[in-house]
Amino acid sequence: MIPVTEFRQFSEQQPAFRVLKPWWDVFTDYLSVAMLMIGVFGCTLQVMQDKIICLPKRVQPSQNHSSVSNVSQGVASTTPLPPPKPSATNPATVEMKGLKTDLDLQQYSFINQICYERALHWYAKYFPYLVLIHTLVFMLCSNFWFKFPGSSSKIEHFISILGKCFDSPWTTRALSEVSGEDSEEKDNRKNNMSRSNTTQSGPEGSLVNSQSLKSIPEKFVVDKSTAGALDKKEGEQAKALFEKVKKFRLHVEEGDILYAMYVRQTVLKVIKFLIIIAYNSALVSKVQFTVDCNVDIQDMTGYKNFSCNHTMAHLFSKLSFCYLCFVSIYGLTCLYTLYWLFYRSLREYSFEYVRQETGIDDIPDVKNDFAFMLHMIDQYDPLYSKRFAVFLSEVSENKLKQLNLNNEWTPDKLRQKLQTNAHNRLELPLIMLSGLPDTVFEITELQSLKLEIIKNVMIPATIAQLDNLQELSLHQCSVKIHSAALSFLKENLKVLSVKFDDMRELPLWMYGLRNLEELYLVGSLSHDISKNVTLESLRDLKSLKILSIKSNVSKIPQAVVDVSSHLQKMCIHNDGTKLVMLNNLKKMANLTELELVHCDLERIPHAVFSLLSLQELDLKENNLKSIEEIVSFQHLRKLTVLKLWHNSITYIPEHIKKLTSLERLSFSHNKIEVLPSHLFLCNKIRYLDLSYNDIRFIPPEIGVLQSLQYFSITCNKVESLPDELYFCKKLKTLKIGKNSLSVLSPKIGNLLFLSYLDVKGNHFEILPPELGDCRALKRAGLVVEDALFETLPSDVREQMKTE
């Protein structure tokens, strides 16, 4: 007998695939085994036993002439001869029973084969083979999607990831934490969510709810007491698993081949079921125990009509009825499967029940093949989907990243990165991390926190531990903030710097920092966005004193004007975009410092002359050619710093003499050729930068500048320096490099406070030994060719080398 295990290859699949076999597939598999046993049993009987047994059929003669005719033709009559009577020569013998046919064994075998092939109905002959073939087709259909290359690869990958997600320690930990949440907490969370959805449109309400963490469950803040529960290796494995799930979801959601394959194989099984029921019901009656066989083989056997017995007819009849019952149940199960497939869309899967049960509200719904496999998993055990959902949650992933981040960045490691920034504050710079470590908030001495290129930054309530925090820098970071943390920053934050590539990175909560004193914004703003209502919220920054915007605005936003009453310094770096409509500057009466850099200005804006409190003006990198309007600066009595550098100015008007309050003046990087003597009537100048021009002559009136401490004519065409220059005895920095000077006057020794001297790039052959009288000048402060330095006396050189 053929063992059933020989057919295992038709239905064999990996044991792990059982999770994708719902109860109806398991049930039909057992039915297939039962039908397979019927087919194998019938085939075995067909092979091992006689199929049919035939005997010649006795025919009664109807007329006498027929017998005579038969005898005359030499054909044996079917009428049996009377038994021989006993005689003297034939002693008494046993009387024979039955009919004598005079057929031998080979003739019987021949008759049996002929009648089996010609007289027996094909259904009775091939019934067990049909059962076997149909059952194998059923088994192939049931498992074809596990074997087809286009679907089996997805299934294997899914089962592999599913098993890892199910067994991951991170899954156990995440679900165990949410399982401890009582019903009251769940109700509170739902109420908070509903309030956040129906929040008022007021500035404060929208500020907190737009990007706060009220929608994120509190339980997902990493608990320090359990931070070590997940070791580093397990954390890295879980992190890799999140990435695998993301990539797998992206790949599988693109198509629905698994769903289509399963539907098609189910439809095929239903069609086959209908065909089997139809023809089997009609032909099962053809399996008869007695069969009449009429074949023309008289020349070989002497008989034409036979009566045959189909030895397995009774058994096959019972097996056929049994098989029909199994097929009927199988078909009804397949019909139920079709109903389940089309009753609702299986190409969409919602984790709503998981979200309600676990409180992880950000688990996304999935579609296509991903959804279909999850529906199949639910028929096996819904716990698989629940545990798998943990790895679809961005909150869960962020929590894992946070845990790994805390383990990597310990407080001691963070303290090693502390440094003093430009504002003389103790700063911690963090660049390109996966998040913000909670251990940062254990460094209580921190004064400035700089975050750069960090996505999904979450500022928790624990920031309140940083009592000394005054400055926060966010460079290309998307930030969410807890409501309690926002309250802390409103009271304590003094300086905020935001650098953004996308407007979505601009935190809306910054407009509520009522104690903010300095705001630095760096990023691209379109003309429309510059009018956005969010910028109007700047008027709520009642303490703002310094505002710096490095962007591409075409005009000063109205929001900036709204804070003009208390704004003291404004910087606009426009990256070459032309700044027009500057009349709003007139409203900034309290402005003391103004920088309009790279704004494509061709003239000095007239609105500037209305800023009577202005002390510093910087018009760097514009397109200024003429500055005749400089005469109007005489009304700005407090103006002490004027920077007109990096322009195209060709001359300095004589009206410059009226700016008697100037202390710092920069004309570097222009096209000035002549210095007017009237310039030196501004006798309060302490800083004068004329570098990178085309100046050939320095007027002797420079000696009037008795307060001069810094003087630079680097990279000009000056051939000689007036001796009056050395009357400026307070001079500390003198830059005369890259000119055409050939002699350095010995009077330079009069500059007793000189600490920095640049003479490199001239035509000097020797340095005056009087440089030794400049006691503050050291070798580090003397910029000169080494060979020229060697021309100084040795004692002077030694003096300069000593600290």
Automatic annotation (TrEMBL):
Similarity field: Belongs to the LRRC8 family.
Domain LRRC8 pannexin-like TM region: 1-338
Ranges that cross the membrane: 30-48, 126-146, 257-279, 321-342
GO cellular component: endoplasmic reticulum membrane; monoatomic ion channel complex; plasma membrane
Membrane topology recorded in Swiss-Prot or TrEMBL: Multi-pass membrane protein
Entry annotated with the keyword Transmembrane helix: yes
Taxonomic source organism: Loxodonta africana (African elephant)
UniProt region (Disordered), positions on chain: 62-91, 177-209
Name of protein: Volume-regulated anion channel subunit LRRC8C
Taxonomic lineage of the native organism: Eukaryota, Metazoa, Chordata, Craniata, Vertebrata
Listed Low complexity bias regions: 62-73
Compartments (UniProt record): Cell membrane; Endoplasmic reticulum membrane
One of the GO biological process terms: fat cell differentiation
Reactions catalysed according to its record: taurine(out) = taurine(in); iodide(out) = iodide(in); 2',3'-cGAMP(out) = 2',3'-cGAMP(in); chloride(in) = chloride(out)
